[in-house]
Specification:
This protein is of the alpha/beta class. It has helices spanning 39-51, 62-73, 113-123, 127-134, 144-170, 193-201, 222-228, 233-239, and strands spanning 14-23, 30-38, 81-87, 92-98, 101-108, 180-184, 205-207.
Length: 246
């Protein structure tokens, strides 16, 4: 089976899926995305969803959920390379799109927990209070500017990791520049993080807008939806999927 040479686990231990992207220049060749996830990992998520009283229908990958969200909300330009960088608590998911189609994905085991841990160490805080301070909530006897300076140091480590991923992408056979960076996840809410990232990598950087072309019911508070938008990008992309989609 052709997929075996690309999967670092026994084929019996993983769930496989693929998507044909299109033909290559070489006759008889095509570009294909292959996704493999260990069955144990999927079962953990499926069981959690079922315990919540829900029926799981589709399991997707963060990178491609972000791609679905982008396709709905942004204009697709055929020659434009866009890097969607989703920065969660402990993981960065990166998906670089060319003409709206994924050409490069990468994960890094680093995330905004670095901000939380730095604040805990510097100010001797509990995890809960460090999270509050990270979100900009006032904590007694801690000047906001002191917290920002500590978080800036943690941001540098995250931004360096993203920069290395961009360099790795440029070193691949594509050898192409990135035209725009779109940031999602909790880090997008950190004060000046998108600005610092843009300055480091030299690329225009924006905060994601997952509800840009989605009509939101009036029963939801519009200011709250705007506030949580950057952390809802993956969920929005998954919610756009339907059973039987490819």
């Amino acid at each position: 089976f052709e997929a075996e040479q690309y999967v670092p686990f026994s084929i019996e231990d993983v769930n496989l899926d693929f998507q044909i992207l299109g033909p290559k220049e070489e006759p008889g060749q095509m570009d294909v995305i292959l996704v493999a996830v260990k069955k144990d990992t999927i079962n953990e998520y499926v069981n959690a969803v079922r315990e919540a009283g829900l029926n799981p229908i589709i399991v997707d990958v963060n990178h491609f959920a972000l791609e679905n969200m982008y396709e709905i909300n942004y204009e697709i330009e055929p020659i434009k390379n866009v890097a969607i960088v989703n920065i969660g608590a402990s993981t960065i998911n990166m998906n670089i799109l060319k003409g709206g189609i994924s050409v490069f994905t990468r994960d890094s085991a680093v995330g905004s927990n670095l901000h939380t841990e730095a604040l805990q160490r510097e100010f001797n805080l509990t995890y809960e209070n460090a999270e509050r301070l990270k979100r900009g909530e006032p904590i007694e006897n801690i000047p906001p500017e002191d917290a920002f300076s500590i978080m800036d140091l943690a941001s540098e480590e995250i931004i360096d990791d993203i920069s290395r991923s961009f360099e790795f992408y440029r070193s691949t056979e594509l050898h192409e520049d990135i035209n725009e960076v779109i940031v999602s996840g909790g880090c997008a809410l950190i004060k000046d993080f998108p600005k610092h990232l843009s300055e480091k990598v030299g690329i225009e950087t924006k905060v994601i807008e997952p509800f840009k072309n989605i009509k939101i019911s009036q029963k939801f508070d519009s200011s709250y939806m705007e506030e949580i938008a950057p952390i809802a990008a993956v969920a929005t992309g998954l919610a756009l999927r339907r059973q039987g989609d490819r």
